[in-house]
Amino acid sequence: MTAAGAPPTPAPTSLGASRARVCTAVAGTNIALVKYWGKRDPALNLPATGSVSLTLRELGTRTTVRFVEGAGADSVRLGDVPTDDRVAARVRQFLDRVRQQAGITSRAEVTTENSVPTAAGLASSASGFAALALAATRAAGLTLPPPALSALARLGSGSAARSIFGGFVEMARGTRPDGSDAFAHPLDEATTWDVRLVVAVTAVGEKALGSTAAMERTARTSPFYPAWITANESDIGAARDAILARDLERLGTVMERSALRMHATAMAADPAVIYWNGATMSAMHAVLELRAAGTPAYFTIDAGPHVKVLCRSGDAPKLAELLAAIPGVSRTMIAAPGPGAHVVEEEAA
Ligand code: PMV
User: Fold this and answer.
1) Which residues, 6+ apart, have CB-to-CB distance to 8 below 8 Å?
2) For a Cys-Cys bond, which of 34, 97, 145, 164 suits 150, CB 3.0-4.6 Å?
């Protein structure tokens, strides 16, 4: 596997005993307030536009990586079970990039636990690749500065670049062909802004169409795609200003329109990309009605049917109750802004 765009490779060695580590890292997932939807370079996973997100405390991934001298292959487990071949291949490809950067050849044991349902539009790939990027680099003896870690996480999943940082985060589109300027930076990392994201789970199981395939189809066939790109750029500045001013109404307005424009663009693809179900629509209407009655609450939806609602912390319980009562909503969760990816345990192997 090649690692296009990676820095020059040192001569491969096996992992020296003094550098050998086991590392466990935790990352919160993040929800985009201004969406990323489309790639300017699929091989390097470079986004066509920037994005703005909120990293969450309660929903995330815990990953342990151990490089093992003499092991024949990487092993990748989700909880107690080996992951399916598609996920394992993505993780191996990512580990190859880490090995190349660290100049090592050892295979790895990777164990991951998600507190978010996997691949269901609840952003498990964001926290997953952020935790993996941190745990794997540290286990390989590398300590990358946060921007380089963010760029590395991006190679696993575009949204993962943002979960390296906590709180409100902006991801740069970058302009360099090698992607070296396409990484995230914090806007308000340890935010004390008292907001919550209420998540309404509206389906079980994995989504039908992964975000990479759906973005590719949207860019290739949706007549709205060029307009989406133009509109998104101006939404980033508006969201940034609203966050810095702690203006929930302004941020929520930008957030909702970004989500609706992303989905409208995807729905106009051929064949259409439709992630919503009936409960998605009902939840959106419930939020609009609540807002009309005076509660500031704003929804967003990712590549799946679930609805996430930004509100004041004091309004979160009543919002969760309202959403839980909608037929088709199986579960609700309340999440607060959380920290960026961090190491929780590290030891010499
Ligand atoms: O990180 P990816 O490549 O799975 O894409 C994420 C796309 C959205 O969640 C829909 C939007 C975003 O910016 O996170």
Assistant:
1) none
2) 164
- Rounded to the nearest whole angstrom, what is the distance from the C-alpha of residue 138 to the centroid of ligand 1? 26
User: What backbone phi and psi angles, to 5 degrees, belong to 179?
Assistant: 80, 10
Kindly state whether residue 13 falls inside one of the protein's structural domains.
no
Residue 73 located in a structural domain:
yes
Q: Is residue 121 predicted with pLDDT exceeding 70? A: no
Regarding the beta carbon of 51 and ligand 1, being less than 6 Å apart is answered: yes
Domain count, the chain: 2
* Residue with CA nearest ligand 1 atom 4: 211
Q: How far is the CA of 96 from the centre of ligand 1 (A)?
A: 23
- What's the whole-number mean pLDDT along residues 257-283? 98
**Amino acid at position 32, single letter:** A
Distance from the CA of 158 to the center of ligand 1, in angstroms?
A: 6
Query: What residue's CA is closest to ligand 1, atom 10?
Result: 302
| pTM of the full structure | 0.92
Atom of ligand 1 nearest to the CA of 212: 3
Enclosing domain of residue 165: 20-191+338-348
Query: What does the pLDDT look like over 280-289, one tens digit per residue?
Result: 999 999 999 9
Establish whether residue 112 lines the binding site of ligand 1, counting it when its CB lies within 6 angstroms of any ligand atom.
no
